[in-house]
Amino acid sequence: MPYAIDETHDPKLKSWVEGANDPQSDFPIQNLPLCIPSGDEFGAVLPACTRIGDFLLDLEVLSDAGILFEHCCCGPNWNDFGSWELEHRLALRKRLVELLKADQPELRDHVALRQRALIPISGLELEVPFYSQDYTDFYASLYHATNVGSMFRPDNPLLPNYKHIPIGYHGRASSIVASGTRIRRPVGQQAPAEDGGTPGFGPCKLLDYEMEMGLVVGRGNELGEPISIENAEDHMLGMCILNDWSARDLQKWEYVPLGPFLAKNFASTVSPYIVTMEALAPFRCQAMERDASDPQPLPYMDSDANRKAGGIDIKVEVHLASAKMREQGIEPVHLSTGNFKDMYWTLAQMLTHHTVNGCNLQPGDLLGSGTISGTARDARGSMLELTWDGDPFAAPPVVVPGTQRTPIVLPTGEERKFLADGDEVIMKAYCEREGYRRIGFGECRGIIEPAQEL
Questions:
Q1: Catalytic pick from 144, 235, 353, 354?
Q2: Is residue 354 annotated as part of the catalytic site, yes or no?
């Protein structure tokens, strides 16, 4: 693996920046995610920043002052930085840690420079920190695929190809939006009530979220030049939270024979921070161990390094607040907790398979993991699964029709099988491991607005 654990991951490191040393902060000195603030006060070209504690650090201000690499980065996104050689990315990370650690006066005591470079996060909005020309969404959780397959194909939940190739579809890059963007309920066709009938048309009735992680591509590859499994990690910049909003009733009607279309392309929300692969080094883990009866990946998707450290231990949580809950000051309710290490396919396998046919990825492209689900009901990463009464992982498996559901009851007495107008979905993700500092991805939020009148 190209991402070594080094002095920048030392859990004893403290910072002079306010909030960075809080044990529950997502943004200690060991993290330093990449982000881009928005606002007229920054002018036409938005500054490239990192997050430390309760502040953003404007790297261009430091570069102009001569205490950081000249022209090390430039907004309005981090795509160019993703193309840097790893040694240069590591050098920037080490220099930032040097400037921000508690016993370093170089920036701490330079009052005028510090005031220009540190931007309080309170009240600030953030942009999508990368520019995607393409977006691919995978279906890499065996547990999610088994849950969904069991609803509609109880005798054959997984299609024959699932354990042989990472399944994915090409999404819509233009509708990737930043956390906090309001999501308008989509409108489209729904399946006829009976075979041969006329489809319905109108606002989506079964609106859902999908708890995913996104991989931001760093270095691209030339058309016709595949990326090998041995080199896949070298093409990764970092990760973010991804909410792949889904219109389940539209999806049911349109997905055969070519897969998702309008059910998925109306919006995909991402958290505003890229947590770099370098920062994630302490949280690497084994790839998911396959059952003895499962086929092994074909050689082009298999390597000793990927088996030993292709996984990443990332806890993911989903919370929900209805409009009525917010009006009454009630905290969001916790819906589920899953873990990215439970994915059947690793990021390296997804990226390698994506390019094996010569497909050219480009800096800033987004690869979605697919819904992250576990075997327990409270680890399911979508409402489609969370409210479903079946349990294919029980002994013996509990198989019920896909429509048999128990609603989620909110503190206000409201019930939810799918999302209602005014609902806010809040996703969180973080890494914890004994002997290392906890780091996080911030939040990925979105409130559902009523459909556009036609």
A1: 144
A2: no
